[in-house]
């Protein structure tokens, strides 16, 4: 059986700059080839991927700081359904099944027991990445420690911005501006709305000129990113 996972450019992962991993994903998969391909692709995207070839190891590796589980159904020491049921008794951690079992009964059983998605093998790695992103977007705000747009990310717990996984030194005002843009990704934010949100903790007013200067400095620190778009006469949008 052939899996549409391309390995040719995975070597970039090991020779590129060190990436601080932000989102923890637990992968239960007993096929070494598939496991390697998925782990490499996810790490390249900036996720931390913990791989387990069995349910027993999955029990040992699971913790409350796991953000998402990728779960095969056919594991050497049991069924992925059992592991899914066990996880849901511990916490409401999102689960995506990855399996060759494509029967309607299998799919509905997985979804009915609380899985967030069900992907049938073979699959393209880009499809998996898209499904993962969709599930993570559905997490409640207080469970989303990281906001991401392209190569830009922000870790709210650490109050740290990143570009291509590398920390970016930001002032308090630049950090708040980036936070506002990422929280409202895809939405056009009028300048007056941004100014209201930027009003600092001490009650000091942030004027229009300060916003312009701060935005210019933020863009420069993000290598003149194209993800922050100016909407003439209105404001800005992160896209």
UniProtKB/TrEMBL annotation:
Annotated Gene Ontology cellular components are: cytosol; protein-DNA complex
Q: What SUPFAM superfamilies does this protein map onto?
A: CheY-like (SSF52172)
Q: Which PROSITE patterns match?
A: OMPR_PHOB, RESPONSE_REGULATORY
**Signal peptide stretch:** none
Q: Which GO terms describe its biological process?
A: regulation of DNA-templated transcription
Q: Pfam families annotated for this entry? A: Response_reg, Trans_reg_C
Q: Which UniProt keywords apply?
A: DNA-binding, Transcription, Transcription regulation
A GO molecular function assigned to this protein is: phosphorelay response regulator activity
What is this protein's function per UniProt?
May play the central regulatory role in sporulation. It may be an element of the effector pathway responsible for the activation of sporulation genes in response to nutritional stress. Spo0A may act in concert with spo0H (a sigma factor) to control the expression of some genes that are critical to the sporulation process.
Its name, as the record gives it, is: Stage 0 sporulation protein A homolog
UniProt source species: Clostridium scindens (strain ATCC 35704 / DSM 5676 / VPI 13733 / 19)
């Amino acid at each position: 059986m052939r899996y549409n996972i391309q390995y040719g450019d995975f070597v970039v992962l090991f020779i590129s700059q060190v990436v601080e991993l932000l989102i923890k994903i637990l992968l239960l998969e007993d096929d070494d080839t598939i496991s390697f391909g998925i782990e490499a692709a996810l790490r390249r995207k900036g996720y931390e991927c913990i791989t387990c070839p069995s349910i027993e190891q999955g029990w040992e590796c699971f913790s409350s700081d796991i953000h998402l589980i990728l779960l095969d159904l056919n594991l050497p020491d049991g069924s992925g359904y059992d592991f899914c049921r066990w996880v849901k008794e511990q916490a409401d951690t999102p689960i995506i099944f990855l399996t060759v079992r494509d029967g309607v009964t299998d799919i509905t059983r997985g979804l009915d027991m609380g899985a967030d998605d069900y992907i049938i093998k073979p699959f393209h790695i880009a499809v998996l990445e898209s499904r993962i992103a969709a599930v993570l977007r559905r997490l409640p705000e207080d469970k989303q420690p990281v906001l991401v747009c392209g190569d830009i990310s922000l870790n709210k717990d650490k109050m740290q911005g990143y570009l291509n996984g590398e920390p970016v030194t930001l002032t308090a005002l630049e950090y708040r501006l980036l936070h506002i843009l990422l929280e409202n990704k895809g939405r056009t934010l009028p300048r007056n709305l941004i100014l209201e949100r930027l009003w600092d903790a001490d009650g000091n007013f942030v004027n229009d000129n300060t916003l312009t200067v701060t935005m210019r400095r933020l863009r420069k620190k993000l290598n003149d990113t194209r993800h922050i778009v100016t909407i003439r006469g209105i404001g800005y949008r992160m896209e």
